[in-house]
Amino acid sequence: MAVKGLVYRASLAIVPPAYIALSRLLFATCREQPQGLEHYQALLVSGQPFIACLWHYSLFYGIHRIKGRDWVIMVSASDDAEYVSRTLTRMGHRTVRGSRNRGGLAAMKEMLALIKREARPGAIIGDGSQGPPLVLQPGVIHLASRTGAPILPLAWGADRYWAFRSWDQTVLPKPFARVAMCFDPPMTVPPGLSLEALEPWRQELERRMLALYAQAWQPFGRAGHMAGAKEGR
Questions:
Q1: Beta-strand pair 151-158/178-183
Q2: Separation between Cα atoms, residue 214 and residue 139, nearest integer Å
């Protein structure tokens, strides 16, 4: 157990900086084709807080893509997610730790406070750290309703990529891939929504997120990244 703990601590020191260096090299080779970029740029220029919402499959390139201001990003409380948290911290962002089954409420309160108090932009994984994939959880709607921050949906697709054997088949673009990076117009939800009143807004954002997902993969003749979609990696 002691050896395992030592290896884990050593890997926490090595993996994040190594990933940042390698991913920057990899993503620099990708040819991005932005769609709706003006929606993202307008929010950055405005200085107002907003919440970027993306699907878990798109985490690697999606988090790399959000730049310009210090973000507060919700990350799972699992041991594996410690790598993600330390990587994001090295990139200059603030992370809060929590998931549906472990510390989620406390993380949501901390994220809410940081967005409101420091006017930071936030980022949240729409389908959470455990899924089901491409099914929106209500947390982002609750957060937007309590902070007044608009939600910026984003999704991306690529012509060439690796898909990991994870619950959502997380994707990483291959070198020199063409990447369609898509942003939807911001969505504003009413303040102070009750838990019951969240559902119609959750359904509307899920509809928009799924439409944007289809838009991101359509240029490459694919229905999506999941196994069974029309694709030929």
A1: antiparallel
A2: 23
H or E segment to which residue 72 belongs: strand 72-75
> What integer pLDDT is reported at residue 8 of this predicted model?
81
The tokens describing 197, both together, are 């009143």
pLDDT band at 231 (very low <50, low <70, confident <90, very high): very low
Residue type (1 letter), 69: R
pTM, rounded to two decimals: 0.90
CB distance 181 to 33 below 8 Å: yes
The phi-psi region of residue 131 (left if phi > 0; otherwise alpha if psi is between -120 and 50; otherwise beta) is left
pLDDT tens-digit map of 121-152: 999 999 998 889 999 999 999 999 999 999 99
Structural domains present in the chain = 2-220 (3.40.1130.10)
Q: Residue 184: name the closest of 86, 55, 96, 5 by CA.
A: 55
Q: Are 205 and 187 in contact (CB under 8 A)?
A: yes
